[in-house]
Hints:
The structure holds two protein chains of two kinds. By secondary structure, chain A is α/β, with parallel strands linked by helices. In chain A, 31% of the residues lie in helices and 22% in strands.
Amino acid sequence: MKHSARVSGSIILFFITVAAFVLTAAPPAGDVGPTYAIRNCRIVPVAGPAVEKGTIVIRDGLIESIGPADKVKVPEDAEIVEAEGLVAYPGLISAFSNLFMEQPARAEGQASPFAEAPQAQAQQPQEDRFPPGPGLLVLDQLKPRKATVDGFHKAGFTTVLSAPTRGIFEGQSVVLNLNGEPLPPMVVRNGAALHINFTTERGGYPSSLMGTIAHIRQSFIDADYYAARQAQYAKGPAGLKRTAYDPRLEALVPFVRDRKPVVFQCNNVEDIKRALKIVAEFKINAMLAGATEAWRAVDVLKKNPVPLLVALDFRPPAASMYATQGEEMRKKAEAEIYPANAATLAKEGIAFAFVSGANADASSVLKNVRAAIKAGLAEDVALKALTIQPARYLGLDKTLGTLEPGKIANVILVKGGIFDDKGQIARVFVDGVLFTYTEVSK
Amino acid sequence: MKNAALPRFTVFALLAAAALLPAFADGGDILIKNGTVLTVTKGVVKGDVLVVNGIIKEIGENIAAPPGVRIVDATGRFVLPGIIDSHTHVALAGTNEGSEAITPEADVGTVINADDTAILTALSGGVTMVHTMHGSANPIGGPNVVLKMKWGRPSEELVVKEALPTLKFALGENVKQSGRTVQPGQTQRYPATRMGANAIIRREFEKARNYMAQWDRYKRAAAAKTPPRKDLRMEVLAEVLRGERVARCHSYQATETLEFMELAKEFGFKIQCFEHIWEGYKIADELAAAGIGISVFADSWAYKMEAAEGIAYDAGYCAKRGVLVSINSDSGERIRRLFNDAAKTMKYGGLAEDEALRLVTINPAIQLGVDKIVGSLEVGKQGDIAVFSEHPMSAYTRCDMTIIEGDVYFDRDALVKEREEAAKKAAAPRGDGGVS
C-alpha cells in the first residue's frame, strides 16, 4: 500500500507540473525562451545617450546586443518585435514595496500600554505563523498574483524588493524579477536587507518610541557581543563557556558585523535623524525608506550620506506641522510642498531612488513621478532614480538598471515618453520573457 | 481663551513667508528700548536691553542701536527673562515607556518632536525653555531633555546641551497603578504598593552597583578576558550613581518622599528636585537642609487621593522656608499661563512680586543647571527675553513678544495684523482659480 501511494503521489506531482507549465504564459527564467529582436524603437539605455532608431536583441533572458539599427544584426532565429513609435527603457526597479504580502500591516503609531484591549487578546489567542524578527524571510509568506504582476508591469516595474510589514525588526526582504507567476524563478536575491520600523510591540516592551530606540540599540549591542564571544570561542574554546545559541542575535550578526544592508523605515524628518544616529553608532550599511520629509533633513543628510528610498507619497506625515494645523494647510502641503521633496534633494546633490512603497497598486507611481517632475525634478534624474540608482543601492547594477549587452533583459516598451501624461506601457520583457499589454497599431 | 487660536495662525504666517524658518529671525541681534527691565537678579532697570549674536551685550539707558539691528519699542511694557518650565512633556513623540517598571534606557531625548504646536502655545506665554520629561508611569522612567522653544528650527537646535543630565523617577499612585483595573489574562505590574516602589528602585541600584563593579574588575584584569555585556539600562543608572546624572522624582506624599531621600543618601546619588510634591509643606525644612528643590503646581490640588492634603500655600510656604521652588505646567496648555500661576503665590503664601517671578525664571534655571546662561537678564547671558504688556505678576498682563537668543519667535502685533489680513482675504469674493 505504501508503495502504490508513493507512485500515485508522483503521478499527481507530474500532472501538477505539466499543468503549471501549460498555464504559465511564458517559460520561466532558467528555461530557454525565444530569441527576440526588438526593432525600430527609440532606445533610452540610461547608460548612455539615446538611440533614435535602434535594435535590441534578447537571447536566453539577457541582452545580447543593442544599438542603432544599422549596427545591430538581427539573428536569423529571432522572433521580430516590431516597435516603431515605441521607446525602450530599462525595466523600472522599486527598491521598496510590500508586493505579494497578504498579512495586513499593523496600524502605525504608538500603542499606549493603557489603551490596549487585553481582554480581546486573551480571548482570541491567534497563532502567528510568521512572527516578525530579524530572522524572518519574507519570501516564505509571499503569495504572487497575476493581477498584481500585471499592475506593476503596467507601471513599468520589472524588479521589485518586497519587504516585511510587521514588528520593529520586521525581517528580511527579497528582490524579485516579475517574470511570471511562480515565485522561485522570480527570486533575484533572498535576504536582500533587514528591515527595521520605529513601531512598538503590542501589549509588551517596548510600548513607546523611545523604548523602541533603546531596544534597537540594545539588540545591536547584544548581537555584536554575541558574535565577539563566538569568535573568541572559535579561536580557543578551552576554558571558555559556550555561548548559548540565540536565533534572534544569530540573525542580526551579519547586519551589525558584516555590513549587510539594513533598511530603516523613516516616516518623518525625526525618524531620519533617529535612524542616522543608530547608523553612526553601529556603523551600519543602511538605507532609509519612506523619507518623504527628507527635504527637511537636507543638512543632516549632506553630513551623513545614506541611500534614500523615497516613497512617492505626498501626504504630510500625521505628526508633521503641515498636518496638524487644519485641513486647508494639509491640502496645500500635499499639493505644493511635499511633491518638491525629490527636486530639493536633487538640487542639494543628495542621491535617491524612487520606490513604489507600501502601495499594492502601482498605478499612481508614474503619476506621482510626473508631479515630482512638475515640482522641479529633471526627467533624467527621475529616470535614474527608477533604474540605475536602485540597482546600485541593491548591489545589482552589474546585471540591472541600464540597457547594455550582457545585462538581464528587463526592458519596457512605452508608447510615448515614460513621463508623458499619455505614456503607456505597451510591452514588457522580464528576464527575456515577453508580456504584451497594449496592441500597437502601425 | 483668545490665545487658543494663535498657533494655527502662526504656522500659516510661517508658510506664507515662503521660507520655512521662523519669519521673524533677526540673526540674533535686537535692541529692546524704553522698557521696565525686570532682571530678576540685578533689580529693576528703566531702559534698554541690547542683544548681539544671541548674547545680552548691554542693559541700561539710551543704548545706541548698532547699524541694522532691529529695534523693539517697549515703552510702557515689561521686559523679563524668558520663562522656564521645569516640568512638562511637550515636543515629544510619546511620554511613557510604561510597559515595565524600570526603563532608564528609554530616553525622551531620542523622541523630540519639534513640530509639536505646544511649542507655539508655550511661546505665546513667554516660555523660552522647558525641561520636557518622561512620564510617571513607572518607578524609574527615562532620561529627560531640556529644550528651547525655537519653533520652526530643526530638533537638534532645540536641545540645550549645557543642562544638567536628569533621570525621571516616580512614586505613588501612578507607579502602583492604583487606578487601573487588571483585566482577565493580564497580570498586575509590580509594584502595586508604595513600599514596592521603594524596594524595586533599591533593587535596581543594587544591580547597577554590581554592574559597575563587574566593569571595574574587567578593566583591571588582563585584556584577554571577556568583557561584561553592555546594558543600556544599567549604563544610565551608573551615571546616576557616579553623580553624572541627577534624579527628578515625581512624588506627592511626605512619607514616601522622605524614604526616597534616605535611599539617595544610602546610594550616594543626588536628588535635584521633587515633582508636584503636594505635601512638600510638611517636609519643607528637610528639603531645604538636603538642598533639594521642588517643582510644583500653583493650585488644582485634591484631584486624586494622594493629592488630598495638597494646599495652595505649598509653593509659597516652601519658598519662604528656603526651598528652591519652581512652578511647572506639566501640560502643553497650562504652559502659556505660568506667569499667572506664579502670581498665585503672592495671594497664597505672601511672596513679593520679584520673589514670585523667580519661581518661573531663575529658580527653574538653577534646577536645570542653566542659571549661568539663562534665567535672568544679565550681560553675557543668552538673549532669551519676554516682553509683557503689564507687570508679569499682574492679572491683566499678557505676553506681547518672545525672543530666544535675540531672534523673535512670537510677536503678537505681527500675528494680529496677519490674522486680520487673512480674514479680509477670506471674506473677499473668490476669483477664478481660487482653491477651496
